[in-house]
Every structure is written in C-alpha cells, then in structure tokens.
Amino acid sequence: MAIERVCVIGAGVIGSLYAGHLASVTEVSVLTRRDDQARALSGGLRITGKSELIARVQATADPAELPDFDLGIVATKATQLEDAARALAGRAPGATMMTIQNGLGAEELLRAEGDWPLLSAVTFMSGVRHSDTHVEYELDTETWLGPYRGTAPEVVHEVSRLRVQSGLRARTFADLRPAQWSKLIFNATVNTVAALTDLPHVGAFAAVDSPTDLGRLVRDLMDEGKAVAAAAGVDLHEDPWEMNVHAVQRGETLAAEGHYAHVPSMLEDVRAGRPTEVDFITGALVREAERNGVPVPLHEAMYRLVKARESA
Asked: What values do phi and psi take at 176, rounded to 5?
C-alpha cells in the first residue's frame, strides 16, 4: 500500500499534530467542523514544542470538497465520531481508515458507514491548543497501531513507517486489544477522577501512603478494570497503575521544565461545559463488566457522578 494522500478528520490537538507532521512527507487534507477554522488553516498550521514547523494543508469543513485520499485518520473526539462517520459515507472507497478515539467501539461506528479496511490505534501524544492554527506539542509518546478484523498487517506497517518518517513515534501490534484495554482502564480512572476533583494529572494520583490519599482510589479503580480485562480474556499490554505512576513522574519532569500539568480531556470538557467522552470510556468498561459478570461498584459510581457533573 502506497500512501500518497492523507486526510485527517478533526482538527483538535491530536488531529493537528498528525496533520502538521504528516504534511512534511505526504499530501494532507483536513476536514474541520467549522468554515472559519478551515479558512484559517489555509495560511498554515504551526506546531511548536517538541517539534517546530509550519505545515501547508488543504482544509475544508465540507466533506464534498475533500480530495481523494489513501489514508483517513479519524481524530475527532468519541462524542463526534458518529457525525464524522456519516460525513465520510460513500467517500474514498479505496482508502484505509484509522481510528484513534478513547474508549471502545470506534471501529464499529465507522464500519456502519463504509466498508473501508480499518486500523485501530491508541495514542498518548498530547499538546496544548493555542489557536485554530497553533498547537504546542508536549508529550511525544508513541501511538500504538494494529489491524482491525482482517486488515493486512502490511497496511499497519506502512502507516507506522509513514508516521516515523514524519517525526512521530509508533509501534505496531498484531493484536491491539491488550494495548487498547490498558489505555481504557487508565483513561476510565484518570479522566473521571480528574473530572470530579478538578485536578490535572498530578502526583496526588499516585500517592498511597496516607489513608486519605487519592492514589488509593485510583489504584482501586484500576484493580476493578483489570478484573474486567481478565474476565474478558485480555492479557493487558501494560499495567494501568504503572502507566499512571510513570505518567505522573513524566509530568513532574515537564513541570520542572516550565510546562503546565497535563489536564485530562474529560476535565477539559467539564471546565468548558461540553459533553464528555465518559459513555465511550467508563461506560464501555461498565458495559463490559456487566457482560462478563464482574462487579465494578467504584466505576459505576464514577460513571454516574460524571454524568451528573455534565448535567450541572
């Protein structure tokens, strides 16, 4: 599979980081939600921080104006995925599509609108969106890629090669489910705790010495999630608690360099008064727990509390 044209669907932080880097090695189009953002991007997309570049991309808010493409990277939030999938219906029949949403079920939503070969991906990249055309790249961590239901492994390796060539990090998996579940449990815990405490991902999330330390709740939530994964027959790629500790340590290093603490996406949404991705993250974990007969009272409580926080 030769990838000569890439379309990034969604121009938030992650979509912008993908589009900005990939434009250095291939032709990139971007589907935005707003006409004014598409017009602004015609003047260039600026990436600062871990990378310093100004990328030229072709942007539009009208799916009918998209040029044909070989690879579509669906980088919307999970709450916007159904609309994005409908916008892509009937387009680029020869393309491969890659999902990078948090939680579970993105591939099925995209598959309902087209018979494209699909790749699954999870990413730990992060940044700060300063404007429609400027994103600061903070965490240059890997994106994990894997085939979905019969997609050829060669396609996964070609997408990974393109990412690395553009300056992004990637790792391929024959089966992405263990990695997806590791991040699902991590996100279902860290995001909900942040959304309900108004705390960014700081050292308190890994503190366990005192009976009242927040890290004890974080660890118990992750233990519930690990029990669900085990019941579902998933051998986790990484232990979510160790991921949490490592992320906190990395955040402390960044803070020492003058960066702000990482604000999980669910907390960003709560602060902005937007719907969160809790149905796709914690909701997915709770549904899997019910399917497998595993009690998850802590995650059920967090799920209900975040939904109540949304309504407030």
From this structure: -85, -10
- Beta strands per DSSP E along the chain: 5-9, 27-31, 45-49, 53-55, 58-60, 71-74, 96-99, 118-123, 126-131, 134-139, 143-148, 170-172
137 and 186 fall within a common domain: no
Whether residue 198 sits in one domain with residue 168: no
Handedness of CA 108, 236, 156, 60 (dihedral sign): positive
**What is the C-alpha to C-alpha distance for residues 247 and 303, in angstroms, rounded to an integer?**
23
Angle of helix 265-272 versus helix 297-311 axis, rounded to 10:
30
Same domain, 182 and 200: yes
With cut-offs at 50, 70 and 90, classify the pLDDT of residue 258: low
pLDDT by residue (tens digit) across 190-204?
999 999 999 999 999
* Same domain for 238 and 120: no
**What's the CA gap between 23 and 34, in Å, rounded?**
21
| CA nearest to 286, candidates 198, 189, 218, 144 | 189
Is-contact 139 262, C-beta < 8 A?
yes
Region for residue 14 given its phi and psi (left: phi exceeds 0; alpha: psi -120 to 50; beta: otherwise): alpha
Nearest to 176 by CA among 113, 79, 100: 100
Q: Determine the Cα angle at 289 with ends 284 and 292, to 5°.
A: 125
DSSP 126-191: EEEEEETTEEEEEE---EEEEEETT--HHHHHHHHHHHHHTT--EEE-S--HHHHHHHHHHHHHHH
Are 77 and 101 within 8 A, CB to CB? yes
Same domain, 205 and 143: no
Show the domain range for 252: 177-311
Handedness of CA 172, 107, 196, 224 (dihedral sign): negative
User: Could you report the per-residue pLDDT of 274-297, keeping only the tens digit for each?
Assistant: 999 999 999 999 999 999 999 999
Instruction: State pTM to two decimals.
Output: 0.88
The angle at the Cα of 124, spanning 308 to 297, to the nearest 5 degrees, equals: 35
